[in-house]
Amino acid sequence: MAKTKIVILGAGYAGLRTLKQVQKEHLDAEITIVNKNEYHYEATYLHEVASGANPPEKISFPIMSVVDQKQTNFIQDTVVMVNKDEKTVELAKNGTIEFDYLVFALGFESESFGITGVDEFALPMVDIPTAVKVREHMHAQFAKYNETKDETLLSIVVCGAGFTSIEYLGELTQQMPKLVKEYNLPADKISITCIEAMPTLLPMFVEKLSTYGIQKLKDRGVKFLVGTPIKEVTPEAVVYQENDELKEVKAKTIVWTTGVKGSSLVGKSGFEERRGRVMVAEDLTAPGYPTIFIIGDCSAVMDKTCDRPFPTTAQIALKQADNVAKNLAAKIKNQPIVPFTFKSQGSVCSIGNNEAIGEVMGHNLKGYPASMMKKVIENKSLMTTGGMKVMFEKGRFDLYH
Ligand SMILES: Cc1cc2nc3c(=O)[nH]c(=O)nc-3n(C[C@H](O)[C@H](O)[C@H](O)COP(=O)(O)OP(=O)(O)OC[C@H]3O[C@@H](n4cnc5c(N)ncnc54)[C@H](O)[C@@H]3O)c2cc1C
């Protein structure tokens, strides 16, 4: 009898952890994982690459270090389409592959919310190439300043004040003294502005923590515009609304971190979705498709305590992956599935390398202990997916004060 074909799309948090766990099941199956790059990257650390705090190699490792070649075939390619009824996946270079079970874990994309000029003039930060582009673009503006003395070259606008924006601002402000020296810039002329539509900053944390975090950034020179929705991005400015008036901040580096949506391939492949996310069944399959699991940022799981979907995070993506591996084995062996349940362990938002704010298992943390906790969590995740070697090579061991 032919072996069961399991295909995993995406080697991010969700896809690679699924592979790691499903290989442990030693199923009578042929496993294929498809990813556009030969490396996995820790998306939660993209802001470090964008700010220049760390090179791309620090936050990535080869997918092959998780692949057990006796069970799994890795195809480096771009997924173009999933034909859910035919049970096939179209790839850009390798034609069409068939599956019996599919794990759709293609992650997130930048969300422009239809605002004019975002796609043309703002810089998203959603993968390694875009994070590198943010860093290179800012460096290029700084290099030009000494020729032209145009002060908009020293102005950076970060659009949105969610988790990603705050973590980026934390690293960027820590890198700034080095950049000022490197490019011989007038420090007092550097301008960093963060523009947020919502009236409150970091509402996911208690006020004491969010105030602490925001004050740290203000002390490092960040100016916050709050309750001021962005209306347009132009080549050299961000236009926002304050009360009934349109105003602008001039800048040559405009970083777009207002939020993300799930992969556009979700909709393109005909799944019922909202912002690239499918409301999945209790076994994490797409409604009506019991052999197609959709996990990570392409999925939505209801939090019954507040009747809203859980925020998409690496934390839930990893838990979903563990559950999918078990349920894949259960389905193949005709055993009962284990419904997915999730309880957030909390979250930690870094404000540079040695500062953070967070809530972990009911405990509020700030400053150095919070930053240490974030590194411990990351190391544990690296260990579980990548193994000991990956954790020692890529982990965070600068736990000093
Ligand atoms: C700066 C930043 C900080 C964050 N901080 C936190 C945090 O502290 N805690 C937390 O829990 N979450 C955090 N998040 C969110 C977290 O990173 C995401 O929720 C998580 O990455 C989702 O995992 P995923 O596996 O669904 O997708 P991803 O990690 O995006 O992986 C998707 C994979 O699919 C590949 N892929 C995409 N499209 C294709 C295609 N067409 N063909 C082939 N391959 C493709 C990609 O290359 C990638 O390898 C942060 C995100 C950012 C950007």
Automatic annotation (TrEMBL):
Pfam families: Pyr_redox_2 (PF07992). Residues 5-321 form the FAD/NAD(P)-binding domain. Keywords: FAD, Flavoprotein, Oxidoreductase. GO terms for molecular function: NAD(P)H dehydrogenase (quinone) activity. GO terms for biological process: aerobic electron transport chain. It comes from the Bacteria. Its cofactor is FAD. Signal peptide: none annotated. Gene3D superfamilies: 3.50.50.100. The keyword Ribonucleoprotein does not apply. Belongs to the NADH dehydrogenase family. This is FAD/NAD(P)-binding domain-containing protein.
